[in-house]
Design brief:
The complex is a heterodimer of chains A (229) and B (745). Chain A is an alpha/beta fold and 229 residues long. Helix content of chain A is 22%, strand content 26%. In chain A, the strands form two sheets. In chain A, strands 2-1-3-4-11-10-9-6-7 form a nine-stranded mixed beta sheet, with helices on both faces. In chain A, strands 5-8 form a two-stranded antiparallel sheet. The longest helix of chain A is centred in the N-terminal third of the chain and has 11 residues. Chain B is globular. The chains are: A alpha/beta (229), B alpha+beta (745).
Chain lengths: 229, 745
């Protein structure tokens, strides 16, 4: 299938996403430029990690106004698949394509480490290659990954199954210690109500080769490929 | 051509006193007058003061650095450019360098460290290489010193804040705490990049009439006199006031600059390129012209500014970050400007290359500086400063041993010591993964990166050993080179190149100059014996406060090459049942050890001599053993000695293992054997099926190699009859030591 990875000024993991899709998964993946509006017929848009525009204001706050984001919003409204990873997740929240917001980690410092993630809804285009409750080892690397949303919104999201990924311990249990950034409900990834827009703080594109520490990230990309087929 | 330059209205009078205030000596001022044949303008005085500063001119170190071996068949670029380069095969060059940012980081830890990272990254992509990894060597004062927690928080925050945002992974480093750095911390930043063979860029101007382009951030008033007054002078009580001389970093712009420069280089329209680092516009323009034996003319009215009203003096001396100077092919300026516009960066023609060998700057249509280029570069002063060993040996006297702690207690205390304890608190704040090359993450002896599209890999390590250098600045330097080389060899990589950062006190003092020369001689002898070229480096003098110098601290960054990255080895035991093998080249001693620093100097305070032939054999044997897949793990014995190394090898992140260690003769009871350092020792674990082959291999290199125990699934570390500890508990002590100290309120 055809993927598009958006490069904003300050995007960093755009090359990693392209590497994962092209070199590891053998997909047709193109780079999309923030100043352009054309999506060139891609079937899934990836907003990558990084520090778009330096993130000197609020993470993702400026990127949402980039010309390409108009097209991404239209694409999502038409039911197109959109994945936001880390900074991409932050941008999707700022653009109101996803509920909630991402704020400074509980520790107030940047955290780079491998964590355990539980798939809590495997009935989506992004997780169908996983089982409910399946555990994935993925790395996080962010300073602002603490997910927040109003309580009533969280309850509704939980009921609708929009909480797709959660931080858990090695045995799959939620706990204070296993929640690296203090996210509400230990949320690591959410979808919109239509389940075609997905944001997550962990980096699946950095977990696609055993040599680099693990390949559990493939499960998420393969889910999308299976959905498109 | 007339040799005149006009002064700007309201500028201070220029005389010998003004020169002194700029850090120039009376003798140096006289030479400036001679070279110009007149009194310099205030602008020119400022220019001379930065170019003739220790930081830019290497005037005290230059003649000694020549003794370092910097050539061999693999070296594509040695010292003299922004960074050195080594051919690593498959059409790739490894481009790397280390640089200090000590004084700025002490005065303003976040920005000082951040801009140190930014500066070294620019040195790498200036060469046409994509920066792929950074390391940092950090020295802080004692943990109990009131400023230490503030400094470590700021420095680590700055390194992460810049490195994470610019997309270059920070894959390793070292952190040490010692009261000797209370008033002068060290921040040495290393960066490595990859360039295609034949596509290296240079900072040598060519082509009279070629335009000079200014690209990147606009110029502001930050960092003025960073090179001269901050980096090239001692600290005293007023140093806090030097905070405005520290630059402010903008990693977002740096990221754009990396992409824009690498893209612009592909056009073929760039003749020469250099970053505006220390002494900014002045050094980049004069050095590029100097290397090409040409002149350069700059029109300061065209320089992009952050605010109005900057004087020529301020523009020329500003160290605003994220700026580059480019000499372009005439007529192809617009091609380059289009690339920089795409990345929303300034790219302005501000001058041209001339034939007359002069460095000329115009402001408001008038010449404000007109200086022979050579006077700023090749003819800058070079000193052969007097050197003499200190009259009283600086080494601490051997004193009677204090009451020795029980070995198990000593092990716990060592694992809890900030110098030994896990540095996870630090490296967890750094993105070590971006660019998808990191195959051995921070926490093992050396970091290992794969090279995409190749079987090869690179192992990186930065080391220093100031305590040994205090006892003997020569042997300490030899030991540092050996240790850095051993660390990459433990990862299975053949050491191929060194970059050094030489941190010393005031070179105007003969005993400091002596320490420096002995240090350089030590690096030379080790590099020659181990056949590893020193391809780049940096000297940082004046690391002293109120006349009290830091310990001599040569920092060595070592790059190693793995022909097949799948043969990499880490320090952690892997399989219960594997045999534990100890290889060493000498008997360990407590001199300069962490044990001695915790429990008082015990016994000898002399460093043992180092047999460099054996050191070379050890490196070759380790690489051969890894290459043949004979070893499961290899860990260099360093701070804390054998007992700590065994414990660390048990701390496998998958699951903590244990070890049963025994040795005939009861030797394991002594503190020297358990906790001694400096014996070039390595702890290996080896599958039973390979143990005979490992012994034969190491014996072939005439190395002492003994099987001393077995890896166990049961998480206990038992060493003879003196230590029997739960390794999960030891691991907790090791992991929690830094967070406990740094996060308490």
């Amino acid at each position: 299938m055809k993927w598009g990875v958006v490069s904003f000024p300050g995007s960093l993991d755009d090359r990693d996403a392209l590497h994962a899709l092209r070199d590891v998964l053998g997909q047709d993946a193109i780079a999309l430029w923030h100043k352009d509006e054309a999506l060139d017929g891609v079937e899934c848009v990836v907003l990558p990690g990084g520090f778009s525009y330096g993130d000197y204001l609020r993470t993702g706050a400026i990127a949402r106004f980039a010309p390409i984001m108009k097209s991404v919003a239209r694409f999502a409204a038409d039911g197109g698949l959109v994945i936001g990873i880390c900074n991409g997740f932050q941008i999707l929240c700022e653009a109101h394509l996803l509920p909630g917001a991402l704020t400074r980690n509980r520790s107030l410092s940047f955290i780079c480490e491998w964590v355990t993630i539980r798939v809590d809804n495997s009935h989506t285009a992004f997780t169908r290659a996983a089982r409910d409750g399946e555990l994935l080892r993925l790395p996080i690397k962010h300073g602002e990954g603490l997910y927040v949303a109003p309580d009533e919104e969280l309850i509704a999201m939980e009921e609708r199954g929009q909480v797709i990924l959660r931080y858990v311990d090695e045995r799959g249990r939620q706990s204070e210690d296993a929640n690296p950034n203090g996210s509400m409900h230990a949320i690591a990834g959410v979808a919109n109500e239509r389940f075609n827009v997905f944001g997550l703080m962990p980096h699946p594109e950095h977990a696609v080769e055993p040599m680099l520490g693990g390949d559990d990230g493939l499960t998420l990309f393969r889910s999308v490929i299976a959905s498109a087929a | 051509m007339s040799n005149a330059a006009v002064s700007i209205a309201c500028e201070p009078k220029v005389d010998v006193e003004q020169a002194r205030a700029h850090g120039l000596s009376a003798e140096e001022y006289r030479r400036i007058e001679q070279l110009l044949g007149r009194t310099p303008t205030f602008t020119e005085l400022g220019v001379f003061s930065v170019m003739w500063s220790e930081h830019c001119s290497y005037k005290s170190s230059r003649r000694h650095l020549r003794m370092l071996p910097s050539r061999d068949e693999s070296v594509v670029q040695g010292p003299g450019e922004n960074a050195g380069a080594i051919d690593i095969g498959d059409g790739w060059l490894a481009v790397f360098k280390i640089e200090s940012h000590n004084h700025p980081s002490f005065v303003e830890p976040y920005q000082g460290a951040a801009t140190g990272v930014g500066g070294i990254i620019r040195d790498i992509f200036t060469m046409g290489a994509r920066p792929i990894a950074s390391l940092d060597s950090l020295k802080f004062g004692s943990f109990d010193h009131p400023r230490t927690r503030y400094l470590i928080g700021g420095v680590v925050g700055g390194i992460g804040g810049y490195g994470n945002c610019v997309g270059v992974p920070t894959v390793g480093g070292e952190v040490m705490f010692d009261a000797a750095y209370n008033e002068n911390i060290l921040v040495n930043a290393f960066c490595l990049g990859l360039a295609r063979k034949g596509e290296l860029f240079s900072a040598k101007a060519r082509g009279v009439g070629n335009p000079v382009l200014y690209v990147g951030s606009a110029t502001g008033r930050d960092g003025i006199h960073g090179a001269s007054l901050l980096a090239s002078a001692e600290f005293d009580a007023s140093s806090e006031h030097k905070r405005p001389t520290v630059q402010v970093g903008d990693p977002f712009t740096e990221k754009l600059l990396i992409e824009a420069c690498l893209e612009a280089m592909k056009t073929g329209a760039i003749v020469a390129i250099q970053d505006m680092g220390a002494a900014g516009l002045t050094s980049s323009s004069s050095e590029m012209a100097g290397r090409g034996g040409l002149g350069i003319e700059l029109d300061l009215d065209r320089v992009p500014l952050r605010e109005t009203g900057l004087s020529p003096y301020e523009m020329l001396l500003s160290e605003s970050q994220e700026r580059m100077l480019i000499v372009a092919e005439r007529g192809r300026e617009q091609e380059l400007q289009r690339v920089f516009e795409k990345w929303d960066l300034h790219a302005v023609v501000i001058g041209r290359i001339t034939a007359d060998g002069r460095w000329r700057t115009l402001f408001g249509g008038q010449v404000v500086a007109d200086i022979p280029v050579a006077a700023l570069t090749d003819e800058a002063p070079v000193y052969d400063r007097p050197a003499a060993p200190p009259p009283v040996p600086s080494k601490p006297h051997a004193t009677a041993p204090r009451a020795e702690p029980a070995p198990a207690d000593a092990l716990r205390r060592l694992l809890e010591s900030p110098n030994v304890a896990s540095k996870r608190w630090v490296y967890r704040q750094y993105d070590c993964l971006v660019q998808s090359n990191t195959v051995v993450e921070p926490g093992s002896d050396a970091a290992v990166l794969r090279i995409k599209g190749s079987r090869r890999g690179l192992a990186l390590k930065v080391d220093s050993n100031p305590r040994a250098c205090v006892l003997d600045p020569y042997l300490g330097a030899v030991a540092t080179v050996c240790e850095a080389a051993r660390n990459v060899a433990c990862a299975g990589a053949r050491p191929i190149g060194i970059t050094d950062c030489l941190n010393y006190g005031n070179p105007e003092r003969p005993e400091i100059m002596w320490q420096f020369i002995r240090g350089v001689e030590g690096i030379r002898d080790a590099a020659l014996a181990l056949k590893i070229p020193v391809i780049s480096g940096n000297v940082s003098f004046y690391n002293e406060t109120e006349g009290h110098a830091i310990p001599p601290t040569p920092t060595i960054a070592m790059v190693g090459l793995l022909d097949d990255v799948s043969q990499r080895v880490t320090q952690f035991f892997k399989r219960p049942g594997d045999r534990i093998v100890l290889v060493r080249t000498a008997r360990p001693s407590l001199a300069a050890s962490e044990y001695a620093s915790l429990f008082g100097p015990l016994g000898e305070a002399e460093l043992a001599p180092i047999d460099l032939t054996l050191e070379k054999s050890l490196l070759e044997a380790l690489v051969a053993a890894a290459g043949r897949g004979l070893i499961s793990s290899a860990h260099d014995v360093s701070e804390g000695g054998l007992a700590v190394a065994l414990a660390e090898a048990c701390f496998n992140s998958q699951s903590v293992l244990g070890a049963e260690v025994d040795q005939e003769g009861g030797e394991l009871g002594s503190a020297e054997i358990l906790f001694g350092e400096g014996a070039s020792s390595v702890v290996l674990s080896v599958g039973g099926e390979n143990i005979d082959r490992v012994h034969v291999l190491f014996a072939g290199y005439r190395l002492e190699c003994r099987t001393i125990g077995t890896v166990t699934a049961r998480p206990r570390l038992r060493i003879g009859s003196v230590i029997d500890e739960d390794t999960i508990e030891l691991w907790r002590i090791y992991e929690q030591a830094l967070p406990k100290r740094l996060e308490r309120s």
